[in-house]
Amino acid sequence: MINRLRQKFDAKWMAIAAAVGILVLFVVLPMLYLIWRSVFIDGAFNFATYKQVYAQSANWKAFANTFYISLVVTFVSIAISFPLAWLVGRTDLPGKGFFRTTFIASYMIPPYVGAIAWTQLLNPSVGYLNEWLVSVFKLSKAPFDIYGMGGLIWCLTLFYSPFAFITISRALEKMDPSLEEASRVAGASPLVTLWRVTLPLMFPSIIAGGVLVFIGVGSAFGIPAIIGMPAQIEVLTTRIVTYVYLGTGKGIRDATALAVSLMIAANFVLYASTWLLTRKDYVTISGKSTRPNLVELRGWKWPLTFLVSLYGFVAIFLPLASIAVTSLIKSLSRPISLDNLTIDAWLAALKNDQYMTPLWTSFVTGAAAATVATAIAVFIAYLLVKTRMRGRTIPDGLATLGGATPSIVIALALIITFSGEFGLNLYNTFGILIVAYMVKYLTMAVRTIAASLSQVHSSLEEAALNSGATWLQSLRDIMLPLIGPSIVAGWFLVFMPSFYELTMSIILYGSQTKTIGVLLYELQTYADPQDASVLAVIILIIILVGNIILRKVSKGAIGI
Amino acid sequence: MAEIILQSVSKHFGEVKAVDNFVATVGDGEFVSILGPSGCGKTTMLRMVAGFEKPTAGEIYIGDRLVSSPAKGIFVPPEKRSIGMVFQSYAVWPHMSVFDNVGYPLKIKGLPKTEIADRTNTALDLVHLNGLAQRLPSQLSGGQQQRVALARALVAEPDLLLLDEPLSNLDAKLRESMRFEIKELQKKLGVTVIYVTHDQAEAMAMSDRIVVMNAGVIQQIGNPVDVYETPANKTIADFIGLVNFLTAEAGEGGVAVPALGRTVPAPSGLTGKAVAAVRPEQIALAAPGTGIAGTVIHKSYLGDAVDWRIEVGGETVRVIAPAAAFREIGAGQNIGLVVDKIMIFPA
Ligand SMILES: Nc1ncnc2c1ncn2[C@@H]1O[C@H](COP(=O)(O)OP(=O)(O)OP(=O)(O)O)[C@@H](O)[C@H]1O
Ligand SMILES: [Mg+2]
Q1: What domain range is A145 assigned to?
Q2: What is the pLDDT of residues A526-546, one digit of tens each?
Q3: What is the DSSP code (8-state) at residue A343?
Q4: Are residue A64 and residue A19 in the same domain, yes or no?
Q5: Which atom belonging to ligand 1 lies closest to the Cα atom of A291?
Q6: Minimal Cα distance from B89: which residue of A?
Q7: Tens digits of per-residue pLDDT, A416-460?
Q8: A206 and A136 in one domain?
Q9: CA nearest to A119, candidates A234, A230, A235, A216
């Protein structure tokens, strides 16, 4: 009996210790080393790097830009998302199910694909939308130029506001509708109820969604690089990449100081918001809740439907259509028409090894990261949900830390830590890409698996142990089959963002390990919009297929 | 205060007839319960009165005001109906203090601050919450939150108070004391009440009249005594209280109940197969050899009473008798039964 018990515990502890060990090696060590490198020069504590970096006005400017852009995008995103979420969740807006799915799904579009699309639509010389506006309104010159602060904020808002929309509309769905009904019977009109009851109750999720947008935009690289850099607008991420590309020791040091600044700023916002939210006590007691009573829009119905459709059209349909058309067009200087379309670019691209190899690289590294991350996530989630051990939340905390850290910071930390410094040289290997993806997206898998694991009653596992199974056997025979769908879902939730990842890959790739995101970025900067579009469509198709599988497996509960 | 008239009100969700042809009048100051099994349409009916659902047919009057009439295209939204409502989930707003919750309807009316304070405090006194005005709902027990909801529903002195299973989230003891408190309040304020519940004891204890519903249709309207003692049909007899059903046969001289060896007068127009219904407390135990002869099958001791299963004439009846009666008689032994009241329904 004692022996059996020991055996059971040994397997369990070894598995969990291995998971924790990997996290310490790939999350804690690199981050600490990054900070250490930024403040120790030749073994002595020294703020000189920071002094040097912030003595340059370009870096100050980048810092200020990052803050300003993130703030504006956050406010605009909330201002758009809350009304949208309310219209879709609480009113008789026609087609709201479709709108809801569409706005949530727009989260799947990689931001840099969005940026490429908007440069096609609104570049000042041959932007489709500009040309159309010129011809319809008989303008003398293109009305918009995407390359500028306005264009940058516009594009970031379109592709980061879904974070706010998803958070807010989920919270709205979970809110007990009788809280609003109580206000109606108390004599308040739907609008007063919205203002006095719904909005204050949604405050925590509005903040939470806003923080997601803020940190997402502050850490974004793709859109600022594609739209901001040509317009000489620099943000922290683009400065960091520029410094890293210098390739010198000083360049890396300067990048390190900027990355630590970014990391501290992001964490500050995160903790400040958590603190703000935990001070307010917003537990809602939910009874047998009824279907929400839908607010009738009456005369506003059609004008609002038009507005929402227009937003969906501009935010999602136009960019996708632009990419698709560009991938098929024969001559960019002629108007869009059937005889100006061809699949030649597609055929050429599919036969081009320089394109297909990165596609394959992304596929393999994404799949490897997803597999490793899911395996680790099972143990972390088990530890978190099914044990009462002291410190059981630490691995989950580390996974969350990885997910909350700006991608560029993770990439830089990994590159300085694993270039032989600690006896492990992953420089320019597939390994460093896989580690980076795993660190960044592990938390997605942990969340999904932990949620499903908490639904499985402990007695099911205890019954197996009682029947004589070892812990590993009970995990294999009882737990895994029960939480199987969530494991598959977790795998896809890591695979998909890894597959199209750009920010970390752009720093970590080597000549043999170029990824599809990097390739697309290069094609865009070398002005080959057509091939970039072909590859963008391929990425979108793969994401779409992945998402369909995800929905099937999770029975609609999880989608990217 | 107001009289409520529900004229052939129906609510159909596609094929589902949640409420069908509901006809009832609730008198001014009356306490009426809607009682019925889960899914019978009680909540739907209440929400139509509140204005959260539009009827598909019929008319609803609150006082002399027509508030819903699909035929005439009339629909008054909830905020213009001047009603108070208590929700099953309490629906106390977590971001407002007790005082702000209760004072909200007055604030919405735009009353002056001092009047709001006075009337809110009066309402809080009414539900015994005076000391807790500044607390947040998360610092209250379930019963206290229930009182906040009640005070908020009453503070604006509505014509009509609607309650949808307001006690079902409370524990048994609290539920019983809240029953009396709500009833007392209603008597004191004279407000008209429509009270939805699936708990027959609750409905009996509080109501002036009970509307019994099943599958969207009204089965019977009457005071608690009528509904319990002369249920309109077998289903109601079964739903309200405990009952023994015995086979019976209607013939020339009345309805014969073979198991009890009795014949009772037949309700008019009843012929052929019938059902006799006897409530367990309408059967008294008697010494063996007296009354109707029965054999004890099983006895369960309940503390204050004993639940007997007794075989008479090939059928089993359930009798609930004081714990002290016939302690010496056990399973397999004979006992006598004296049956008081027998109800007869068509089979
Ligand atoms: N919005 C709706 N769409 C379709 N069917 C509905 C809708 N609302 C209610 N129903 C149906 O109408 C019937 C009556 O529902 P209702 O909520 O009124 O029952 P209830 O008597 O309050 O039950 P309970 O005691 O369980 O609360 C049910 O069969 C329910 O499924
Ligand atoms: Mg109900």
Answers
A1: 53-81+110-283
A2: 878 888 899 999 999 998 888
A3: S
A4: no
A5: 1
A6: A287
A7: 888 877 777 777 888 999 999 999 999 989 988 988 888 887 777
A8: yes
A9: A230
pLDDT digits (tens, 9 = 90+) for B95-120: 889 999 999 999 999 999 999 999 99
pLDDT per position as a tens digit, A158-190: 999 999 998 898 888 888 888 999 999 999 999
* Calpha distance B230→B237 (Å, rounded): 8
**Cβ of residue B10 lying under 6 Å from some atom of ligand 1:** no
Instruction: Tell whether A220 and A363 lie within a shared domain.
Output: no
Q: For chain B, which domains are there?
A: 1-80+189-232 (3.40.50.300), 242-346 (2.40.50.140)
| Residue of B40, B52, B88, B168 to test ligand 1 pocket, by largest number of atoms within 8 Å of CB | B40
Give the distance (Å) from ligand 2 centre to CA of residue B207. 18
CA distance to partner chain B, nearest, from residue A99 (Å): 24
| ipTM for the assembly | 0.82
CB contact under 8 A, A281 and B109: no
By CB atoms closer than 10 A (0-12, 13-18, 19+), residue B289 is exposed
Give the domain-ending residue among A255, A283, A311. A283
- Other CB atoms closer than 10 Å to residue A210's CB: what's the count? 24
- Residue among A305, A390, A430, A437 at smallest CA distance from A26: A437
The SS3 of residue B328 is: coil
User: How remote is the CA of residue B214 from the centroid of ligand 1, in Å?
Assistant: 12
Give the number of domains in chain A: 2
Q: Are B327 and B281 in contact (CB under 8 A)?
A: no
Residues of A in contact with B78 (CB under 8 A): 181, 184-185
Give A91's DSSP letter.
B
**Is residue A186, in this structure, part of any structural domain at all?**
yes
Q: If DSSP codes are grouped into helix, strand and coil, which group holds residue A42?
A: coil
pLDDT, one tens digit per residue, over A371-400 is 999 999 988 898 888 887 777 888 888 898
Residue B265, SS3 per DSSP: coil
Q: Is B331 in the pocket of ligand 1 (CB under 6 A)?
A: no
Is residue A211 included in any domain, yes or no?
yes
Q: State yes or no: pLDDT of B204 exceeds 50.
A: yes
Centre of ligand 2 to C-alpha B46, Å, is 9
* B254 burial type by CB count under 10 A (0-12 exposed, 13-18 middle, 19+ buried): middle
Average model confidence (pLDDT) across chain B: 89
CA distance A82 to B213: 41
Same domain, residue pair A28 and A148: no
Instruction: Tell me the average pLDDT across B34-59.
Output: 92
**DSSP label of A298:** G
CA-nearest residue for atom 29, ligand 1, is B39
